[in-house]
What we know:
Elements (H helix, E strand, L loop, with lengths): L3 H15 L4 E6 L19 E7 L2 E6 L2 E6 L5 E5 L9 E7 L2 E6 L6 E5 L7 H5 L13 H9 L5 H7 L8 H10 L13 H24 L1 H7 L28 E5 L2 E5 L7
The structure holds zinc ion.
Amino acid sequence: xxxxxxxxxxxxxxxxxxxxxxxxxxxxxxxxxxxxxxxxxxxxxxxxxxxxxxxxxxxxxxxxxxxxxxxxxxxxxxxxxxxxxxxxxxxxxxxxxxxxxxxxxxxxxxxxxxxxxxxxxxxxxxxxxxxxxxxxxxxxxxxxxxxxxxxxxxxxxxxxxxxxxxxxxxxxxxxxxxxxxxxxxxxxxxxxxxxxxxxxxxxxxxxxxxxxxxxxxxxxxxxxxxxxxxxxxxxxxxxxxxxxxxxxxxxxxxxxxxxxxxxxxxxxxxx
Length: 271
Ligand SMILES: [Zn+2]
């Protein structure tokens, strides 16, 4: 599943090339997770001003609204001067004066949704409850601490819920908790202020590193088109059940929380 770093790298792969382009045509294929909500003709003639990201949504700001794109479970975007005829898993072509943006999505959990503005439905419904952006200046330690104080659920599940901070998916949550020495099962509100500060720094670090690694392989990423997989993170705990901890050599443990696998070191993560 594309996580925040993959979505950010996708954004970087075409944002500057599509900015200022005029929409010439929009073709939709099979139904996606949510409908576009308007006739594709509504987009024709509009100018794409910029491409932003909010959580795992890409926002294409245009003259009279915003096109929200989500990659779902298996989606990928490719922007090129020309595209081959749409294949059976290509479900959106946004044809512009500067190239064609294509959504390839075999499982069709992705979406392209039009909204007249970010403050109106359906954008408001999709974006309104998202937490802070971990890679932005708006990710504030004080607000992070306050957000966790209100939550009695295990810290790992609070991170995954995305309403305090967005984009910390399963892999990155396990890794950030290891880096900050926190047991994934601890109640969020029980964490000490210094420990929360460590977690805050770890989240930024693990996500920024993933974007950086993705960015360095940007060319491959763009060309891969639909077969991008996960970034090859040098994981400390994720997927390493039974293997020795890289710090203390104790075997890494795996548990299930909210139907998701969690990996941690029983020695290094005691807080
Ligand atoms: Zn350890």
